[in-house]
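hi! just following up on the protien thing from before. the input was this:
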Amino acid sequence: MIYKIAICDDSKEDTGFVSGLLKRWAAERQVSIQTESFPSAESFLFQYAEDKNYDILLLDIEMGQMDGVTMARQIRRDNETVQIVFITGYSEYIAEGYEVAALHYLLKPVNGEKLFAVLDRAVEKLRRSERCLTLALSGEMVRIPLHEIRYLDVQQNYVTVHGKEDYTVKKSLGELEKLLDEEFFRLGRGGIVNLAYISRVTKTDVYLKDGSVLPLPRGRYEALNRAIIASN
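and the predicted 3d structure came back as:
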């Protein structure tokens, strides 16, 4: 697989430095990359409108008229799998990345070892996003990408998988749990949640980014919080 990586930075010097690190990382990991550089958020979005097939974005935050966080918000409207890494000279921007699910922040000047570790994580997440849950429904096979599944819940002898669409199958929750990965957490007898979609957790409920609220069984609060921390 060739990983398509975009660097968006208005500094030619910083862009050249990061490009060199990317070449070193690709050579050491023996992976193929295609790198493109853009001097502004606007120039990237112009290209992105024609080709959305990017895997990793390395975004400066302070750029011209549109900053990197605003640009990332636009991308996240229809792309949940691209891995976004912010590169900035200012640590006070770090809190702004949570809403766009940024993988990491790197402070300038970029440390090669830290960038390599972040790129390793990005590739691992991209590989996970390729995995699918295959269901037999009314005589046809449906493949649902795991990253699209928000949660699963049980009603009597049926389980509903909530993704971009809802799919209900006559299977046990335990059977489906074996087909998922470590991004999913078993809430109890009644459901499984994708950790990536959680926005807030209380002692009694799990709040998702789409507004759904799932009951949290007694005794699962600490375990769920540990799982969320481990997944980041």
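DSSP finds six helices and 15 strands in the chain.
The chain has a mean pLDDT of 90.
cheers
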